[in-house]
């Protein structure tokens, strides 16, 4: 397969994997003994190997580092904007972007809308800045590892929505607005849909 690197070596494993994509699709490439070179996002590569599935994730397994040829630097592919609920087999192996409210927030995983987000330890991504119920955008590899999910490559791929300027309009669920009142010690709150 010839394509452009969307996930550089070292993002998910210590030099054992990367992902490539062309106009028709993308695939995760893994070699337990290492790729043998550093590949950056956007590199133009040609990879041969055995096609397999591991926990439902389609992978290309090169038998040796010689089956991974870097042809030169290229322009990194742009992520495909996908509705969170549409992550699955049709998007597997592609670089995607999903936006929605954050839920089920933990150190290694969370959800953006209906999309499961998995944080690979090697990527060093922290969930600070994310809040339950608040919108966020996540860019990453669409992977079907046991179930459909998105794997962000780095902290830059996890983008919390801008913090609201007024506390009254903060996330997560109900929006309230303070009604004008002559006494600063009290405020009437009115539900706003």
Name its key features.
single chain; 193 residues; mainly beta; OB fold (Dihydrolipoamide Acetyltransferase, E2P); 2 domains; seven-stranded mixed β-sheet; 16 strands; 0% helix; 43% strand; elongated; disordered C terminus
How would you summarize the topology of this molecule?
Elements: E1 2-7, E2 17-21, E3 26-30, E4 44-47, E5 50-54, E6 57-61, E7 68-72, E8 80-81, E9 95-103, E10 109-112, E11 115-118, E12 135-145, E13 147-151, E14 158-160, E15 175-179, E16 188-192
Parallel strand pairs: 3-6, 8-9
Antiparallel strand pairs: 1-2, 1-4, 2-3, 4-7, 5-6, 9-10, 9-12, 10-11, 12-13, 12-14, 15-16
Description:
The protein is mostly beta strands. It folds into two domains: 2-72, Beta Barrel (OB fold (Dihydrolipoamide Acetyltransferase, E2P)); 80-160, Nucleic acid-binding proteins (OB fold (Dihydrolipoamide Acetyltransferase, E2P), Beta Barrel). Helix content is 0%, strand content 43%. It is built from no helices and 16 strands. It has strands at residues 2-7, 17-21, 26-30, 44-47, 50-54, 57-61, 68-72, 80-81, 95-103, 109-112, 115-118, 135-145, 147-151, 158-160, 175-179, 188-192. Strands 5-6-3-2-1-4-7 form a seven-stranded mixed β-sheet, with no helix packed on it. Strands 8, 9, 10, 11, 12, 13 and 14 form a seven-stranded mixed β-sheet that branches. A two-stranded antiparallel sheet has the order 15-16. The chain is elongated and about 55 Å long.
């Amino acid at each position: 397969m010839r394509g452009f690197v969307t996930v550089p070596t070292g993002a998910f494993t210590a030099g054992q994997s990367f992902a490539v994509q062309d106009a028709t699709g993308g695939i995760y490439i893994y070699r337990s003994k290492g790729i043998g070179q550093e590949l950056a996002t956007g590199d133009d590569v040609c990879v041969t190997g055995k096609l397999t599935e591991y926990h439902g994730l389609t992978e290309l397994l090169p038998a040796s580092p010689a089956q991974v040829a870097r042809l030169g630097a290229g322009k990194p592919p742009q992520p495909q904007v996908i509705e969170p609920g549409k992550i699955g087999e049709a998007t597997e192996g592609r670089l995607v972007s999903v936006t929605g409210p954050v839920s089920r927030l933990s150190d290694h995983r969370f959800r953006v809308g209906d999309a499961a987000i998995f944080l690979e330890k090697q990527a060093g991504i922290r969930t600070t800045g994310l809040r339950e119920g608040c919108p966020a955008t996540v860019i990453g590899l669409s992977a079907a590892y046991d179930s459909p999910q998105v794997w962000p490559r780095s902290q830059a791929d996890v983008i919390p929505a801008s913090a609201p300027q007024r506390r009254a309009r903060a996330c997560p669920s109900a929006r309230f607005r303070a009604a004008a009142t002559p006494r600063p010690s009290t405020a009437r709150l009115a539900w706003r849909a």
